[in-house]
Amino acid sequence: MSLQNAQQKPARRARQSHRNTDGIKKFSEQKTLLAFQKAEAAIDRLVQEKETVNFNTVSIEAGVSKPFLYTHTELRHKIESLRWQTEEQQTEGTLYKSLKQENERLWKEIQKLRELLLCSSNSVTS
Question: What is the CA 55 to chain-centroid distance, rounded?
């Protein structure tokens, strides 16, 4: 082995140990951006269809992991905000339905009492 070859080998090793990870980083950033866009689109779809918005439904709809949603603060805050809104709307809807049913039941009971009163008053006058 010549002196020149001996000096070149360490230089090659140094070059080989420095890996080019730019392509991997760029792919990772693109993948994250795509997942972010899918999550935002899923949130918009769920809101438009008046579905429940929470981490589980967004995760399923968008095809992203729940940890991904939790670690991206913009998505996290949006989901938490919408989650409270949809829960309130559902609670109001449930309350409205139960009150409406109770109202209908009471009106039927009033109608029956009126009929009984009318029948009893007719029998007294006859």
Answer: 5
pLDDT per position as a tens digit, 5-49 = 555 555 555 555 567 888 899 999 999 999 999 999 999 999 998
Residue 19 amino acid letter: R
Give the whole-angstrom CA distance, residue 86 versus residue 9: 66
Distance separating alpha carbons of residues 118 and 126, to the nearest angstrom = 12
Maximum pairwise Cα distance, the chain: 135
* pLDDT tens digits, one per residue of 100-121: 888 899 899 999 889 888 888 7
CA nearest neighbour of 94 among 82, 102, 106, 105: 102
Burial zone of 102 (CB within 10 Å; 0-12 exposed, 13-18 middle, 19+ buried): exposed
Percentages helix, strand, coil for the chain, rounded to the nearest 5?
85, 0, 15
Judge contact between 70 and 56, C-beta under 8 A.
Answer: no
- What pTM was computed for the model? 0.55
Asked if 58 and 35 count as a contact pair (C-beta separation under 8 A), the reply is no
